[in-house]
TrEMBL record:
Gene source species: Niastella koreensis (strain DSM 17620 / KACC 11465 / NBRC 106392 / GR20-10)
Entry's EC annotation: 3.5.2.5
Highest taxon in the source lineage: Bacteria
Domain annotation Amidohydrolase-related: ranges: 51-427
Gene Ontology terms: cellular component: cytoplasm
GO annotation terms (biological process): allantoin catabolic process; purine nucleobase catabolic process
Protein name: allantoinase
Oligomer and partners: Homotetramer.
GO molecular function, one term: cobalt ion binding
Amino acid sequence: MFDLAISCRNICTPEGMREGTVLVSNGVIVDIVPALTGQVSQREIDIGENVLMPGIIDPHVHINEPGRTDWEGFNTATLSAAAGGITTMVEMPLNASPVTTTADALDKKLAATEGKLHVNCGFWGGIVPGNGPEIEKLINKGVPGFKAFLTHSGIDEFPNVTEQDLHQAMPVIARRQLPLLVHCELTTNVQPPPAADVQSYKNYLSSRPKQWEDDAIALMIRLCEQYQCRVHIVHLSSASSIEQIKQARQKGLPITVETAQHYLYFNAEEIPDAQTAYKCAPPIREKENNEQLWQALQEGIIDFVATDHSPAPPALKEISSGNLIKAWGGIASLQLALPVLWTAARKRKIPVAEIAKWLCEKPAILPGLQKSKGRIAKGFNADFVVWDPDKSFKVTAEALHHKHKITPYIKQDLYGVVEQTWLAGQLIFEQGRFPVLNKGKIITS
């Protein structure tokens, strides 16, 4: 007798969409069969024409606890994730306080999760100047990799690294075969024009030119080749770097790339002035640039899509002043990861199976979860999202579970309604309700 049987006409498997029934025992997928024959499970449901997809994996999320729980926190972040079909996240080493650059800081972060994890969560370590002795300690505590900035991170506790810092850290990370995630902007090489009008989005965009990204990515390609260290470029926004990334991959270098939903959904030409909810770094660029990101994603040069959920209170976002230069750079979108990407992909007639690759299968690889998560297949965790690709909704602040409802997606009409989320065979979200809470686990490498 199985614990659970989910029948569906649109099961998203690695081999493509198929009809059948997924059988689950002890939180693991046991089999996928064409049809049920008799009572074989304690719980049997039929989700009809809805899509059964692997639970979404988002390896780029800022939760900010401990220390800045007023920005977000584990409770609200993981509720938002569950409501959006995300079953596993990997949280960045900032903007918590203390930042996760020491083993002691990681212990504090793990303690802060107690009773607040509604989905699974892992934790990246951080690389900053001078924390070389902590790298092995963090690895031994289970971090799946490390994050570094090549420009100011936004908070002084997490300073950017120099090339010399990377020469010291990358051999250690490479020896342990873990990835180094890098925010690629080199702000010293190009001086942007002065921003006379602080409410002008055009001025903000010109203040962070593509060349900052392109130069930083060139540096990381060179260091990746020198040390054969896995390098992952986070939130790519400059299409000018696609060619050098492609060439590096053709040389066999271990480089992977993500972009974010907002670079694929919005275009700079459509962003109003003084609307700080749109501010992120690197910035959302022009339509022509972003169409090239779409092409690179479809060609596999960009591996996957992650939210870079980075919320902040209204005062930090300069909501009242509209000051795009001073405002915190970060977009809150965790709960909307699936519908935002699907809405934009649907216009391009991209099939659902591609969405599963970009949100589930490919992101699982970065933190080393590809043998247990990201696929609907025998032996994989029974983490699922049930969603209706043909159903639309208007984004409202009231429906969001993020601590702060500041997001550029408010009032957007999106396709792809999440009906259910399952974690290890347990229903954790259904049509606006959370049947069970605190079922998330800490993920370690």
